[in-house]
From TrEMBL:
Designated name of the protein: Divergent polysaccharide deacetylase family protein
Signal sequence segment: 1-19
Family matches, as Pfam families: Polysacc_deac_2
The UniProt record lists the keyword Methyltransferase: no
Record keywords, A-Z: Signal
Gene3D superfamilies assigned: Glycoside hydrolase/deacetylase
Organism per entry: Pseudomonas gregormendelii
Length: 258
């Protein structure tokens, strides 16, 4: 009798174990790529459009091919954003802390006219400008009204741009890794591996690079390998959805930007 009860219990436990789902599921790791400073050199910039995935093309308004390249990128199915010059950047479109809001709006609207098909903007330079809370609060409200997203390039530890975007629920995301502060293929490859490791650790990573020959060489060689490494390369809009407008640990606490 005891033996029969024991066998029945063992069978029952085996059935429960078989029915239970696996304790762990595959951890998703997502990467997005933005290439800045586009619009200066068409043959070079077209290499960006040939990269085999959802590259975001950040186009500077004060470049000779800004409008033409924005149209080409749009036709190629890439997301276009305005790479908006901000202090210490100079030029006719650049934002500076001493300018009134009316002038900032005039420069932004002029830049958006030069770069068509924009889904949103990110800052070019901007270490002083992105620390200006009133201007950043105005910018995020303006982008919200125009149904555009914002990418904080995080060129300064004092940036408040992403925090102001988060306050009003503007679709936004922050950069995690600059690929090419050092312009050697070895250094760029290392930065790419840093981004991959970060994506595995926190679930996602946003990379910004530039159309340097060394950067493009590494990306052309390494990006096709991402899928085999368990990394999903997604568009910046999808990345905003994945992150849900929440800050990562490097940029805030409990999802709130510092």
């Amino acid at each position: 009798m005891c033996v029969r009860l024991l066998l029945a219990l063992l069978c029952c436990l085996a059935g429960v174990a078989h029915a239970m789902p696996a304790a762990t599921t595959a951890h998703k790791a997502y990467i997005s790529l933005i290439i800045d400073d586009l619009g200066q050199n068409l043959p070079r910039d077209r290499r960006v459009l040939a990269l085999p995935g959802p590259v975001t093309a950040a186009i500077m308004p004060d470049t000779p091919h800004a409008t033409e390249f924005a149209r080409e990128a749009h036709r190629a199915g890439k997301t276009v954003i305005l790479h908006m010059p901000m202090d210490p950047a100079t030029g006719p479109f650049a934002w500076h802390p001493e300018l009134p809001i009316e002038e900032l709006e005039k420069r932004l609207n002029a830049a958006l006219k030069v770069v068509p098909y924009t889904a949103g903007i990110n800052n070019h330079m901007g270490s002083r400008m992105t620390a200006q809370r009133p201007a950043m609060a105005w910018l995020m409200a303006h982008l919200q009204r125009r149904h555009k997203l914002f990418v904080d390039s995080r060129t300064s530890a004092q940036t408040v741009a992403a925090a102001e975007a988060q306050k009003i629920g503007l679709a936004s995301v922050s950069r995690d890794v600059f690929l090419d502060d050092e312009r050697t293929e070895a250094a760029i490859f290392t930065q790419l591996q840093t981004a991959i490791s970060l994506a595995r650790k926190q679930g996602s990573a946003v990379m910004i690079g530039h159309p340097y020959p060394q950067t493009l060489a590494v990306l052309e060689r390494e990006l096709p390998k991402l899928k085999a490494q368990g990394i999903e390369w997604i568009d910046i809009k999808q990345m905003i959805s994945v992150r849900g407008n929440r800050a990562t640990a490097a940029h805030g606490n409990d999802g709130v930007y510092r």
